[in-house]
Amino acid sequence: MTLRIIPERYLPHVQGLLRIATALLFLQHGTAKLFGVPHVDMFNGLKLFSLLGVGGAIELVGGALLLIGLFTRPVAFILSGEMAVAYFGFHAFQNFWPILNKGELAALYCFVFLFFAVAGPGKFAVDRA
C-alpha cells in the first residue's frame, strides 16, 4: 500500500500548475534582460544581439509559450538546452559545487524543462485543447 497525499488522478493538474509557476518565474529572466523589469543592474545596457540578449529573447518567448502551454514539448526541450548551456558555459567552470558556482537555478530549470519535454504540459494547456 502506497501512501498518497494527493490522489494520482490529480497528477495532470499539479503538472500543469508546476508548468505555469515555472514559466512565470522563468519569464522574469527574459523581461529583466530585454525590458529592465524587474530591474537587474547586471543587465544595464544589454544588447539584443549579444549572448545574454539572445538568451533573454529565448526566455521571453519560451516562457510565454510554456505559460500558455503551446508547443510545450519542443519549447521545453529548447529551454532545457539553454539552461544546460547557461550552467556549463557560465557556472560550472567557477566551482564544482552548484551552490558555490551560483548555478543551482540554471541546473534546476534545465531538469524541470527536460521533464516537461518528456512528460508534456499537464492540464491547463493550449496543447491539450
TrEMBL record:
GO terms for cellular component: plasma membrane
Membrane topology summary: Multi-pass membrane protein
A Pfam family assignment: DoxX
Organism superkingdom: Bacteria
Entry keywords, A to Z: Cell membrane, Membrane, Transmembrane, Transmembrane helix
Intracellular or extracellular location(s): Cell membrane
Membrane-crossing residue ranges in chain numbering: 48-68, 75-93, 105-126
The keyword ATP-binding is annotated on this UniProt entry: no
PANTHER family linked to this entry: BLL4328 PROTEIN, OXIDOREDUCTASE CATD-RELATED
Family: Belongs to the DoxX family.
Annotated protein name in UniProt: DoxX family protein
Organism: Methylocystis echinoides
